Amino acid sequence: MQARTLGRSGLEVSALGLGCMGMTGVYGAASNKQDMIALIQDAVERGVTLFDTAEAYGPFANEELVGEALAAFKGRVVIATKFGFDINPVTGERGPGLNSRPEHIRAAAGAARPTPFAGRDA
User: Fold this and answer.
1) Residue 57 among the catalytic residues
2) Is the preceding peptide bond at 116 cis, omega within 30 degrees of 0?
3) Which of 44, 96, 99, 104 has its CA 20 to 30 A from that of 84?
4) pLDDT for 26-55, tens place per residue?
């Protein structure tokens, strides 16, 4: 597998990445969880080291799936995630705006669901 270096960071990833959005039902019914874990792990074994997800895919479900599938490969893979959506962490309901508050970014990037209404004006 060819590799690419991202920006000036020196972070090296596979030239091919795996977008995981459709695995948790964004385009219709969710796929079988164990089948998707096997697919992700097979991609690693074939040299893929870049996996794409977002807190909005599910919401949260996709990041949890990707995290579970890649736990055994810690240090060998890179997970790219998109965040900043206004998603209620309790209900999963998506609001019309964005949430780029520092505490939300830390929670999203740290793969932890934000504390309900943390840092928000109620």
Assistant:
1) yes
2) no
3) 44
4) 888 889 999 999 999 999 999 999 999 998
Q: What is the pLDDT of residues 55-82, one digit of tens each?
A: 888 788 898 899 999 999 999 999 998 8
Name the CA dihedral angle for 82, 86, 120, 115, rounded to a multiple of 10 degrees.
-60
Tokens, residue 37: 């874990």
Q: Quick one: tokens of 98?
A: 């964005």
Residue of 13, 56, 57, 83 with catalytic role: 57
Report how far residue 38's alpha carbon sits from residue 77's, in angstroms, rounded to the nearest whole number.
16
> Taking the model in full, what pTM does it have?
0.82
Q: Token pair for residue 83?
A: 């965040």
Question: In a 3-state reduction of DSSP, which class is residue 62?
Answer: helix
Tell me how far CA of residue 93 lies from CA of 51, 85, 89, 96, in angstroms: 25, 11, 8, 10
Counting DSSP H helices and E strands in the chain, the numbers are 3, 7
End-to-end CA distance of the chain: 49
Q: What does the block give as tokens for 39? A: 């697919």
Tokens of 117: 């209404």
